[in-house]
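User: Please run a holo structure prediction.
Assistant: Happy to. Please share the sequence and the ligand.
User: Here you go; the ligand is uridine-5'-diphosphate.
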Amino acid sequence: MRETEKIMGISIDRVNMEEAYNRFKMFMGKNKLHTIYTPNTEIIMMAQHDYELKEILNTGDLVIPDGIGLVYASKILGKQLKERVTGVDLMTRILQYCNKEERSIFILGGKPGIAELATKNITKVFPQIEIKGVRDGYFKEEEEQCIIDTINTLEPDVLFVALGVPRQEKWINKHHLKVRVAMGVGGSIDIWAGTVKRAPIFFQRLGLEWLYRLFKEPWRYRRMAVLPKFLINVIINKNRQRD
Ligand code: UDP
């Protein structure tokens, strides 16, 4: 049975990486669309004002806690989120699976050239994956239907969507494509392309990936300042959430 924890009105799956991966494998065995979303504190805060995003996250078939802030919030609320499960790590597990089982993927998103570069690197590591298609995320409105038709014709097993939050979640939700799994992956495409580097393992293990990112991309400080704000909100809302 699915176990979730509600953090600031959003249901997050109480899973570790292995359990998240097992859920994904279960989705692959069913011939219908399943959605995977990867909220972090910034996204949860965004969803407090963006009700459409909030609703969409709450309809996700697997919603993983992609941020140490969610694990802290869970502790503050006396809930039991097990650990941080990042989108980029789950994406890698999914790619491993697709390689082993010779499944197909489609990548939508990223700047022109970036998705292609990411795909090239993915193919180097996972040569058995069938790449059904790649398309950058800066298409015009009039091109959108053609992209949808292409995906629905190709029917890839997994669709990775990197259009930034909340666009990618809304896009996945709106079009209900003929794929088994659609996952919002955001900046993971840039990591696969090699244009953005992940924090060294040392920072990842300590849950300080955000600090590393702050050093590397100081202009993000405004977006990151949301973490303390988020925790304060969690504390303020603690009693209300219990009701
Ligand atoms: N992106 C896109 N189309 C857009 C907006 C963003 O393809 O209209 C891509 C962007 O190039 C990047 C990814 O979405 O590869 C993630 O964007 P963002 O920085 O907003 O997300 P985060 O890094 O927080 O996951």
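The chain has one domain: 4-242.
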